[in-house]
Amino acid sequence: MKELFGGPGRKSGLILRIGQCLFASASIGVMASASGFSAATAFCYLIASMGLQVLWSFGLACLDIHALRFNKDLYNHIVVSLFVVGDWVTATLSLAAACSSAGVMVLFAKDTNFCTVETKCSCGMFQISIAFAFVSWFLLAASSYIMFWLVASI
Amino acid sequence: MKELFGGPGRKSGLILRIGQCLFASASIGVMASASGFSAATAFCYLIASMGLQVLWSFGLACLDIHALRFNKDLYNHIVVSLFVVGDWVTATLSLAAACSSAGVMVLFAKDTNFCTVETKCSCGMFQISIAFAFVSWFLLAASSYIMFWLVASI
User: Fold this and answer.
1) B101 located within any domain
2) Residue of B62, B81, B97, B101 with fewest CB within 10 Å of its CB?
3) Which proteins does it associate with, and in what oligomeric form (chains A, B) (predicted)?
C-alpha cells in the first residue's frame, strides 16, 4: 500500500482530522448558541450531523496519535476499508446537512424578508455556522479521497 | 486498467448514464411544471444543477454508444481521469441541489404551515422532483466511484 499525504498514521492525516474536529465543533457551538435555530429542522440536523463528524474524526485522530507515538502501521487493507466506508458516509451526511441548511438560509435571507422581520433570530450566526460546516466537510472530503485512493491502489 | 461493471464503453455503464439522464430530466420536468417553484432559490438551483447533469450524462452516454458500436476502447488514463473530475463535480453539485431543496421542502411541509396555507403552491410535485433528483444523484455517485476506482487501480 502506497504511503500518501494525509494517510492514516501520518502527521498530515492527524492535522486533517484535528481540523475536521475543530471546524465541526465550532459549527455546533455557533449554531447552538444562535437563538431560534430550532425553528428549522435543517439547522437541528446540521448539529446532529456535525456531532457525528466530531465523534468520527476525534476517534480517528486518537488512532493517528496512537500510531505515531508507538510507531504502529495502520496500512492494513481491512482497517483502511473500514475508514473509507465511515469517511464516505460521514462526508455525505455532512454535505447534506450543510447544503440543506444553506438552502433554508438563502430562503430566509434572500427569498423572504424573514431575517429583517424576525430580528430575534440570529441569521448572521446561522451563516457562520454553515460556513464552518462547509470547511469541515471539505477537510473530510480530502481525507475520504485519500483513503479511497489507498484502498483502490492496492 | 481493470474492466469494471459500469465502466466507460460498457453496456452497464451506458444503462447507468441513461438512468441518470432520465431521472434528472424527470426532476426538471416535474419541478418546472409545479406552480410557485420560483419562490425558492433552492428549487431554481435544482433545475440548473439537474440541467448540467442531463448534459453531462447525455454526452457520456453518446460516447458509450459510439464505443460500443465501433468497438472502441475508452480505457485510457487521461480520458478516464477527465471523466472522474467531471463526474465528481457534477455529483457534488447534484447532491448539494437535492439537499438544499429537501431542506426548504421540510421547512415548508413540517416546520411551517406553508403547504396548507399556500394551496396554489404544488408541494407534492416539489417532493416528487426532489425524490427524482436523489435517485439521479445516486446513479451518478455509482458511476463516480467506478471511475475513481478505475483511475486509482492503475
Assistant:
1) yes
2) B62
3) Homodimer and heterodimers.
Of B95, B103, B152, the CB nearest to A101: B103
* Interface confidence: ipTM more than 0.90: no
- Answer yes or no: is A28 within a domain: yes
Entry pTM: 0.90
pLDDT digits (tens), chain A, 154 positions:
566 777 788 888 899 999 999 999 999 999 999 888 888 899 999 999 999 999 999 999 999 999 889 888 777 788 888 999 999 999 999 999 999 999 999 999 888 888 888 777 788 999 999 999 999 999 999 999 888 888 887 6
**Best CA proximity match to A73, nearest among A152, A150, A153:** A150
What domain range is A130 assigned to? 11-152
Distance from CA of B40 to the nearest CA of A (A): 6
The tally of domains found in chain B comes to: 1
| Grid cell digits, residue A2 | 502506497
Flag if A100 and B106 touch (Cβ within 8 Å): yes
Residue A85 covered by a domain: yes
**A26 HSE (CA, 13 A, CB side):** 17
Alpha-helical runs (H) found in A1-122: 11-33, 41-69, 77-106, 114-117
